[in-house]
Amino acid sequence: MTQTTSTTPAAATTLTPDQVLAGVEQLRRDFGAVKEQIGRAVVGQDEIVEGVLTALFVGGHVLLEGVPGIGKTLLVRTLARAVRLTFSRIQFTPDLMPADVTGTTVVHEVETESGRRERRFVFQRGPIFGQILLADEINRATPKTQSALLEAMQERNVTVGGVTHPLPEPFLVLATQNPIEQEGTYPLPEAQLDRFFFKLLVRAPSREQLHEIIGRTTGASESDVQPVLDSGRVIEHGRLLRRVPVAHHAQDYAVRLVLGTHPGEAFATPMVSKYVRLGASPRAAQAIILAAKCRAILDGRFAVSTDDLRAAAMPALRHRIIMNFESHAEGMTPDAVIENLVGTLPLEAP
């Protein structure tokens, strides 16, 4: 079965109930602490921040879509500062080459133990080897360059010159794209979109939030973001989240949600059958389950509910369904289709 998230296995040792409780409390404290630090620099956007942190803890990647100037890059930079992870940024442009992303093999002159100088091929790492990678305006790069991220996002490896190089853990790609300006852009292929855990829509700030932004950015004070979390604890929290149980009826609801995005299936709504050309992949079900586990733990529960699954459906599905021509002609959006599906799908299987 395909995987959309980190393949780091759960710890082999059996945890005692006290250890589980302590781990859960630590996770909740760390999540809140990182969110608080991000809030020192980013105004509002609570839903976006929670979605990004959820993806970080479960090992997924996030596609941030929004017009320029609303804080997407600031959010990613602030997150890297708050979790003490290495940060890399790639500004995608049409002339960017795959080697500019992954790195390349160069000839390097070295001195041997005998004192002789020899030329050897040395791999020079690219910016993709950061733990948090900001892929800014990813849809401006050509498909050839976009594909350089495919192996990294799925396998957490980069292969150059026949040699495979592992990426650091945790590894999180946060890609941004502008939904308005389409000139000189290359839409992401479905195979790459499917590798994003969530697609989050970053909205413009409200009136009150805009006042707060102006006050913070035009005054003398500067945001003081402190690191409150390291890579080791992020990985531990990810392992703990995978231990959260999911009852069969809850898992079946996630399965029916994904199957309901396929036109012609038994669980598809009339709106799905009319406007959707191709439904979501199994990675969507995996993303819904993992995100629901995180939401349950943060809410102080040790089991996933259908409300958790419903909350995760929109960001996990909106980029994984392919709309048909009729939907474009009538202005029907993936969000509207998913909202209809979530609102009508029975909680219990028929």
Structure description:
The protein has helices at 17-39, 46-58, 72-82, 98-102, 143-146, 148-155, 190-193, 207-217, 231-241, 248-259, 270-275, 282-298, 306-317, 325-330, 334-344, and strands at residues 62-65, 87-91, 103-111, 117-125, 132-136, 157-160, 163-166, 172-177, 198-201, 276-278, 322-323. It has 350 residues and is of the alpha/beta class. It has two domains: 16-94 and 128-218, P-loop containing nucleotide triphosphate hydrolases (Rossmann fold), CATH 3.40.50; 244-350, Helicase, Ruva Protein, domain 3 (Orthogonal Bundle), CATH 1.10.8. A five-stranded parallel beta sheet has the order 2-5-8-1-9. Strands 3-4 form a two-stranded antiparallel sheet. A two-stranded antiparallel sheet has the order 6-7. Helix 1 packs across helix 2 (46-58). The longest helix is centred in the first third of the chain and has 23 residues, at 17-39. The radius of gyration is 22 Å and the shape is globular. The protein starts with 16 loop residues before the first helix and ends in a 6-residue tail after the last helix. The relative contact order is 0.15.
